[in-house]
Amino acid sequence: MVAVADLAREGTPPEEALPAAATDGAGLPLPALPPVPQVQALSLERPALLAPTHPLWQCGLRPFFLATVAVAWLAMAAWAGAWLLGSALPPAAADVGFVAWHGHALLAAAGLAATTGFVLTAVPEFTASPGFAPRTVQRLALLWTAATLLALLPGPLAQGLAGLGWVALLLGLLAQVAPRLWRAAGATAASCRPWRC
């Protein structure tokens, strides 16, 4: 912005250098326009996939619903290939058979992923609390991934560790969700009339 004193030093009369104030038809001055905000340059670089700032980890439904779809499609493709073409199933399927392995993959792996994604999304919505931290979502996704990969290995040790991984996932989810639900239940109970509950 040019100061009037600077214009006077340059030899330009201040009345000529400054624009005339805008007026309406009646000669009244119009209000000044607000200053134009500074626009920052947009960055086209995306954070790394495992970085907590990546959009995948910003909402609990994203990684877990993606995992649900992936497991459902892969399990169905493996089961259909084995059933129709005689191709090999994962080694763990040899221990339990076609149908049991298929049910196990869909219920344990896909079912837990879908449930976890839903709970991580619904609880903040229903309790009016902030979303879960991306690191929390990453830790739960790591537990789910480890348990699901262990479930593909043969033998009772791998299957037992997979079961422990899924139990750890459920306990971790419960540890994250229970305090929010407890606070929300207390707030609801205090304002709830018996004939409306």
Task: Describe what this molecule looks like in 3D.
The protein is mostly helical. It has a domain at 55-187. The chain has 7 helices and no strands. The chain has helices spanning 4-10, 14-17, 61-85, 91-96, 98-127, 134-150, 156-191. Helix 3 packs antiparallel against helix 5 (98-127). Residues 1-8 and 189-197 have low confidence and may be disordered.
What is this structure's SSE topology?
Elements: H1 4-10, H2 14-17, H3 61-85, H4 91-96, H5 98-127, H6 134-150, H7 156-191
Helix pairs in contact: 3-5, 5-6, 5-7, 6-7
Q: What are its keywords?
A:
disordered C terminus, elongated, 7 helices, 197 residues, disordered N terminus, mainly alpha
Short description:
The protein has 197 residues and is mainly α.
* Strand portion: under 5%
Main sheet record: none
- Mean pLDDT, to the nearest integer, reads 79
Query: Distance between termini?
Result: 64 Å
Instruction: Flag low-confidence runs.
Output: 1-8, 189-197
Give the helix/strand class: mainly alpha
SS element count, helices = 7
Q: Write down how many β-strands occur, each being a DSSP E stretch of 2 or more residues.
A: 0
* String of helices and strands: HHHHHHH
Share of helix, binned:
55-70%
Large-scale geometry: elongated
How big is the Rg? 31 Å
